[in-house]
Amino acid sequence: MLHYKTYELDDPEAPWVVFVHGAGGSSSIWFLQIKEFIRHFNVLLVDLRGHGKSKGMALHKEDRHYDFEDITRDIIEVLDSLRIQKAHFIGISLGTILIRNLSEIAPERVSSMVMGGAIIRLNIRAKVLVTLGNTFKRVVPYMWLYRFFAWIIMPSERHKKSRLLFVNEAKKVAQKEFMRWFRLTNEITPLLKYFEEKDTAIPTLYLMGDEDHMFLPAVRYIITRHTNSWLEVIDNSGHVCNVDQPLEFNTRAIHFLKKMSSTDALTATVQLRLATC
């Protein structure tokens, strides 16, 4: 099972918030969120397979080539072990794809979703990056590829802290594990297309940096098609907005989750919709 860490309030009615990191990261990328969130919610942090303290998790022979569903079910296994029937989910980057996939596999487990630096669609630049990565992954050291991708996605000097954080975390991922995760790029495009066409109607807040030029345009489009979806753009921030602007990220996410945790969630949804009109 995945490595995880929990922070629980004394209040038995306190809702759960599950944090899901992106590829190459670990639960440590949420260090700027934990202090604020544990004041209001029970918190569950997971390290995805091959990442953080889950990098040593045993794999059966048949699991050595896995897909998004396998990784998503890893998260559900942790929820089951902790007897968490339903939770709010917060993700960053590729973690948002896993949360969206979880909302398809087990929608009854998802109260709401906060998608930071959400990956909704791959634009031309992103597709070129994936193609280059698949072409050179056997001959170029994987950390060269990761540094290059990080620089393309987070190019500004203002993004340096986020970029270095993800690069340093990626160094802890074994090369064989990196290759397994990179194979997942082959199924990203059809999966994202399915997500775009199907609206879950689960309350979803997209938190995007105004400098996240690779992924922000697609999110602006998707909220016009999906119900119960809202976008808030954080100024002076790139793809990893929870690190670039943690105060704004925390304030907006907590406000949304507290609304969604109210006894009358339907009323909260209507209020949020009116506020954005």
TrEMBL record:
Pfam families: Abhydrolase_1. Residues 15-242 form the AB hydrolase-1 domain. GO terms for cellular component: membrane. Keywords: Hydrolase. GO terms for molecular function: hydrolase activity. PANTHER family: AB HYDROLASE SUPERFAMILY PROTEIN YCLE, MONOACYLGLYCEROL LIPASE. This is Alpha/beta hydrolase fold. It comes from Chlorobium ferrooxidans DSM 13031.
